[in-house]
Amino acid sequence: MLRILAKIQHNINKELPLLAKNMARQFHVLIEQDEDGGYIGKVAELKGCLSQGDTLDELMENIKEAIELCLEVEAEGKKKSHEETSKFIGLQEITV
User: Fold this and answer.
1) Which domain holds residue 57?
2) In a domain, 2, yes or no
3) Cα dihedral value 78, 76, 66, 87, nearest 10
4) Cα separation of 31 and 50, whole Å?
5) Which position among 45, 70, 80, 92 has the lowest Cβ density within 10 Å, counted as fewest Cβ atoms?
6) pTM of this prediction?
């Protein structure tokens, strides 16, 4: 019985990283338009994770790829997650 439980635990430990990798996570992207009309996206939860595109569709494709790369680097332990220490709250407009 203990052998069976140990084997099940081993299989669970082996599969957990794969499951975590395939789980969808939600991120917030701050989008700005530059002087040439292109778009720049910055991921609020992942410090230093940004991309650009000539159209919003292109930006969103590029930012998804950038997020995947940032998460890959994070998973390899090369970079500490900004997501662990900050939480996106929202944007406020202010007139001065």
Assistant:
1) 26-75
2) no
3) -70
4) 10
5) 92
6) 0.66
Q: What is the CA radius of gyration of the chain?
A: 19
Which pLDDT belongs to residue 13?
A: 60
pLDDT tier for residue 38 given thresholds of 50, 70 and 90: very high
Domain membership of residue 96 (yes or no) is no
Q: Which DSSP string do the residues of the chain spell out, in sequence order?
A: -HHHHHHHHHHHHHHHHHHHHHS-----EEEEE-TTS-EEEEETTSTT-EEEESSHHHHHHHHHHHHHHHHHHHHTTSS--STTT-----------
Angle at Cα 61 formed by Cα 35 and Cα 54, nearest 5°?
25
Q: What is the CATH number of the domain that holds 54?
A: 3.30.160.250
Q: Are 32 and 59 in contact (CB under 8 A)?
A: no
Angle, CA of 9, 11 and 13, to the nearest 5°: 70
Tokens of 69: 């790369």
